[in-house]
Amino acid sequence: MADPVIFTPDKGAYIRTNTWLAAGAMAAAMIVLWLLSNPYIWTGAPAGLAAIGIRAWYLASEELATKWEMSDTTLTGPGPRVIPLNQVAAVNTMGSFVQIVTKSGDKHLIKYQADPAATKAAIERALP
Fold first, then answer.
1. Considering only CA atoms, which of 76, 122, 109, 107 is closest in space to residue 9?
2. Which of 88, 56, 92 is nearest to 73 (CA)?
3. Does some domain include residue 92?
4. Among 67, 118, 65, which residue's Cα sits nearest to residue 96?
5. Do the domain assignments include residue 5?
6. Domain housing 14
7. How many domains does one find in the chain?
8. What keywords would UniProt list here (predicted)?
9. pLDDT per residue over 11-60, tens digit each?
C-alpha cells in the first residue's frame, strides 16, 4: 500500500476565493439598491464587503482545518465522507474547488486548493 495523499486547503486560495465572492456581493448589493431606486447605491459596496468579510473570518478556522486523504482504494474527507475510488464518475474543477461526482450522483467538494488542476490529476491517476 502506498502512502496516502493528503489534500489540504490553501490559505491563499481561501483569501482569493473570498475576495472574488466579496466583489460579487458588493456589485450585487449595489445593483439591488439601484433597482430599488435607492439614492445611496454606494452603501451596497461596504455592506457586501462586510458580509463576506465577516463570513470569511468566521469560517476560516473550520474551512482551513479540513483535509481529504486518498488511499489506494478510497477518498476520505470531513464529515466523515468515504468515497470508494471505483465509485468516482467524474472529477471537475470549479475555481479553487475540486468536485468529486460519484456514480450514484453524490457530489463532494475539496475546497480551496492551491492548484486544483494538480489535485484533479492526482485523483484521476488513482482511479481504477
1. 109
2. 88
3. yes
4. 118
5. no
6. 10-63
7. 2
8. Membrane, Transmembrane, Transmembrane helix
9. 999 999 999 999 999 999 999 999 999 999 999 999 999 999 999 999 99
